[in-house]
Amino acid sequence: MEALELARWQFGITTVYHYFFVPITIGLSLMVAIMQSIWLRGRNPEWLRLAKFFGKLFTINFALGLATGIVQEFQFGMNWSDYSRFVGDIFGAPLAIEALLAFFLESTFLGLWIFGWGRIPEKLHCACIWLVHIGTVLSAYFILSANSFMQHPVGYVNNPETGRAELVDFWAVLTNKVQLVTFPHVIAAALMTGGAFVLAIALWHVWRARTPADDKPMYRKAARMGAITVLIAGLGVTVSGDIQGKIMTEVQPMKMAAAEALYDTVPEGQGAPFSIITVGSLDGTTEHWAVTVPKLLSYLATGTFEGEVHGINDLQEEYTLTYAGSELTEVEDYRPVIPVTYWSFRAMVGLGIAGMAVAAAALWALRGDRPLTHRGWYWASVSVLFLPLFANSFGWIFTEMGRQPWVVFGLMTTQTAVSPGVSTGEVLTSMAVFTLLYGVLAVVEVGLTLRYARAGADPYDGASLDPADRDEDQAFVFSY
Amino acid sequence: MELSTVWFILIAVLWTGYFVLEGFDFGVGSLFPVLGRGDEQLDGNTRKRVMLSTIGPVWDGNEVWLLTAGGATFAAFPHWYATLFSGFYLPLLIILVALILRAVGIDYRGKVDDPVWRRRWDAAIVFGSVVPAFLWGVAFTNIVRGVPIDADMEFTGNVFTLLNPVALLGGLVTLTLFATHGAMFLALKTDGPIRHEARALAIRIGLGAAVLAVLWLAIVHAGTGNAASWVLAGLAAGTFLAALGLARAGREGWAFAGTFGTIALAVVSLFVALFPDVMPSTTDPAFSLTAANAASTGYTLTVMTWVAVAFTPIVLLYQGWTYWVFRKRVSGHHIPIDAAVPADSDLGAPAGPGR
């Protein structure tokens, strides 16, 4: 393999891995903030216990999200230096602003929250976790602005003298139409993941015989809160995803065609079908058997059931005419890997819907105070933890793989973006190191999360968390 | 003033902020094997937990200075970012691995009550503190003294080009300087036996660091320095000696301010020696990356300047507030007894059917 292939694999592996922690961080910080706020208002100790319980699980996940985030920032320069030179004028700005506005906020106030129990006034302490959550959302906004530029470049001019894209309108980058719909979609998906995290662990405690009977009502409350979050956020994901599909069709028609493996254009009036599942050849060109919904693809792509949907073959021809001979492309094939886009799109949608279904079933089962004893609830709690999480991963795989061969759509191909001076051996080393390290850390992280999830919420010790009542020499509530 | 010059200064400020702040975090972690050893007064685990609790609320925020420096370099000087990060590939890889292990180690070591678990994360914390502390010195020596760069702004050397004797000396200087800085911080922030041992240790390591640092600063500034950078390097040396004297006199707060000032002055002296280059080329001075030829367009720099002017003071305010909130000294009795889940909790127990 060449440095290019390895650099792509490294980016894929590190990004998918990093993105397991991001939606949990965004979603769970909001859940903890709400729990702590409910406690502050009503003083029911159950909510305090839940806030601390999920807060600890939050810090376990935050640690890895932060640590792997540094790799994300550094590898643009390390593996993709020609990309960095070409778009640094535009791409670097949101990245730097993300660090200045969001990362400082998140990490400073998380430190205050972890060590601040009983040391800063209760309301201020609760505000800290809200600020952590706001930091995560701001962070998502700026990094998604940068990503949306790669999907649909705006606010720039190509400068032939310097050989790079140069920023002329930063506001256009921040309000890119792709960004305006991607941001709500990503945030809703993250909240769905956070809700599912709470639902999964709380539901498991409701089901488990060993959970103290006195604690069951508390976990039922948390599970209901998680399930409602999944359902509301899931609705947000669906609505924003629907709008996103139409904008994607407008700016990246090849990606929509690749999502369905639609080779031939379906003209206006016929209505393109959407296949839920297909058995076909490995390269996606031949279909042997499929379950299809008539006219659904036309609706997803255009908003009408009769709309025209461009096929891969036509688009390939069109792109060849537009881009062939351009110095920054150097490719002849403008098609992404079709099976990857086809299946990742279905996995994203299918896992998301399945997650909502489990949440709805759990909400129904948790009404009143009837006990949950069926073994199925164990599997429900395990699966709901992973369904939205993996839906997020497949969503990103679809978005990023569907853009190929472009790194910046219509401007620069991935193969011209790689660092020219970095050897295959160097990239191989780093890819192997990160894969190994991330693998080991995944085992540790999952083990630790399970351990803390199983241990359950600490009992309420009745100690005051008002610093005015406490003595300066007390022990830290959370500490290392 | 040119905007690219403004941004050169801002990048210098960010790196200075990173080294003065994370410098003491690295120092605290590096001193685990020395100050974290248990004795009859305090067991090793409690000592390490006290040490970690001094940096606990702030280390994470300190590390963001690095992320901001990296992001700001990307935004303001894309060519500098591209040449530096692709050229210093392997050292940066090792730094990344070290920082990941350290972050995870700090957060996870106390989460399971098991000596083997703790020992492994202790090793990760020490590795994650010592290695970056050393490699940042190597990297900065190379940046200031120059590396082979061709007409396309590409680094043409290899990892052994970077591991030259002066750069290795630079690594030893940052390592020992940060260890001194960390010991001063521990002397300021703890009470009980650690406080006194840390102060004595700061003076001992500090004397070694002083010799290395004077030699290193002299070599670097003799090569590329100017009058202003010499003055700053001299001030750094003077401040350091004053810090050691203050530590000896028991003035811990002032002594820590002293090492803080030393690192700041030394880093600033390097950036002053570097300007107007950002990465000099040893192949041909004409190929050097300068603040002017590596910079983004004026428009990007203007946008970034407004953002920096508006938000940096806010960041400084709340980070400062964190230090104020946790201004009290930490000692053994602040450490909770049952913070961790014991290793033999019901982990692995079969999940029985519900009732």
Automatic annotation (TrEMBL), chain A:
GO terms for biological process: aerobic electron transport chain. It is found in: Cell membrane. The chain crosses the membrane at residues 20-41, 53-71, 91-115, 127-144, 183-204, 225-243, 343-365, 377-398, 427-448. It comes from the Bacteria. InterPro entries: Cyt-d_ubiquinol_oxidase_su_1 (IPR002585). The keyword Nuclease does not apply. GO terms for molecular function: electron transfer activity; heme binding; metal ion binding; oxidoreductase activity, acting on diphenols and related substances as donors, oxygen as acceptor. The keyword Electron transport applies. Pfam families: Cyt_bd_oxida_I (PF01654). It is a multi-pass membrane protein. Keywords: Cell membrane, Electron transport, Heme, Iron, Membrane, Metal-binding, Transmembrane, Transmembrane helix, Transport. Its main location: membrane. GO terms for cellular component: cytochrome complex; plasma membrane. Signal peptide: none annotated. Belongs to the cytochrome ubiquinol oxidase subunit 1 family. This is Cytochrome bd-I ubiquinol oxidase subunit 1 apoprotein. The lineage of its organism: Bacteria, Bacillati, Actinomycetota, Actinomycetes, Micrococcales.
From TrEMBL, chain B:
The chain crosses the membrane at residues 6-28, 88-105, 125-147, 167-188, 200-221, 227-247, 254-276, 296-318. It is found in: Cell membrane. The keyword Electron transport applies. It is a multi-pass membrane protein. InterPro entries: Cyt-d_oxidase_su2. It comes from Ornithinicoccus hortensis. This is Cytochrome bd-I ubiquinol oxidase subunit 2 apoprotein. It comes from the Bacteria.
